[in-house]
Specification:
Helix content is 77%, strand content 0%. With 155 residues, it is an all-alpha fold. It is elongated and about 50 Å long. GO terms for molecular function: ABC-type transporter activity.
């Protein structure tokens, strides 16, 4: 994997690492209880957290690439290659978003939830695209199911 895609992946993981503490804080401070009395779908609360994280990552990656171009970055990759890299980064952000939301729901306090995402700091260096897509889809599905089940029990 090229260094520019590794920078985007690291940026993605750095942002998603804040999700568990924020979700756990919402659960322990009563924000979720306020949503329960409103006409808000249960799934919308968790999905909103993941989508907001994904959009923030997209803006940050666009700024990162824009500044790199302004500083003279001249990639050898074609436009479809760049779309593929951004697609993988977005899919990985989506998968990590659901996993970190479920870690935050499972933790007992915001402090322990903040430590739950530390193992996510690494990123794969090489690999097959189809395997990466399958892993991302699997992680997202497991994270979503775990988050939904935990949220139903706790909220």
């Amino acid at each position: 994997m090229k260094s520019h895609s590794m920078v985007m992946l690291r940026r993605n993981f750095k942002h998603v690492a804040r999700n568990p503490a924020a979700v756990n804080s919402d659960m322990t401070k009563g924000i979720i209880n306020r949503f329960k009395v409103m006409d808000v779908s249960r799934s919308a609360i968790l999905t909103g957290r993941v989508i907001a994280s994904l959009l923030t990552n997209l803006v940050a990656i666009a700024a990162l690439v824009g500044v790199a171009y302004l500083l003279g970055f001249s990639p050898s990759a074609s436009f479809p290659d760049w779309l593929g890299v951004v697609g993988i980064v977005v899919l990985l952000g989506f998968a990590a978003g659901w996993l970190t939301v479920s870690l935050g729901l499972a933790a007992k306090s915001p402090e322990t939830a903040g430590m739950a995402s530390v193992p996510l700091g690494g990123a794969p260096a090489t690999g097959d695209v189809l395997a990466a897509l399958a892993w991302c889809a699997g992680i997202a599905l497991v994270g979503y199911l775990w988050a939904s089940a935990t949220f139903t029990k706790r909220a």
